[in-house]
Amino acid sequence: MSTGWIVLGVIVVLVLFAFSAYNRLVALGQRVSQAFADVDVQLKQRHDLIPNLVETVKGYASHERGTLDDVIKARNSAMSAQGPAQVSAAENQLSGALGRLIALSEAYPDLKANANFQQLASELSDLENKIAASRRFFNNAVQEYNTGIQQMPAALFAGMFGFTRKDFFDLGASRTEVEAAPQVKF
């Protein structure tokens, strides 16, 4: 009789632990989803700002059509991307195109002095900082989630409950460009 109670007690503890592990992993998964949604909101704001920036530059640098077209193509590609890996790659392309667009202002002093351009560039800079913060938050949530599904004893239940590894919002191939020190020439 007492052996039966012990076995029942062990089973109850295991079931309670499984429920606890499942609920923790669900909460971590929801945090990852919420963090990606936050990144997505910031990226949408950037996508909405880009046409205004391009139109402002068009008036000053109409012969720079290739750069302007690249920005629009990259924006459209970024808007249609799905999932962290595709969004990350498309946004990296868009960041590069935007960098070239902003660099045009150096070649056109009238554009650089334009109040509308300055305001849009300032908004873009602010958005880039918010996007970077959102990416860090997302990557932190992914790290906690991935750690949660790999730690014992939750790892015993994670696969059974359908929890799989999530991808980070990574710089990918452009990492070398971002990490490279700028070259200064006189």
UniProtKB/TrEMBL annotation:
Main location per the UniProt record: membrane
Annotated Gene3D superfamilies: LemA-like domain
InterPro entries, per the entry: LemA-like_dom_sf, MamQ_LemA
Subcellular location: Membrane
Keyword annotations from UniProtKB, A to Z: Membrane, Transmembrane, Transmembrane helix
Bilayer topology: Single-pass membrane protein
Pfam families: LemA
Domain of life: Bacteria
Transmembrane helix is among the record's keywords: yes
Family per similarity comment: Belongs to the LemA family.
Identification of the protein by name: LemA family protein
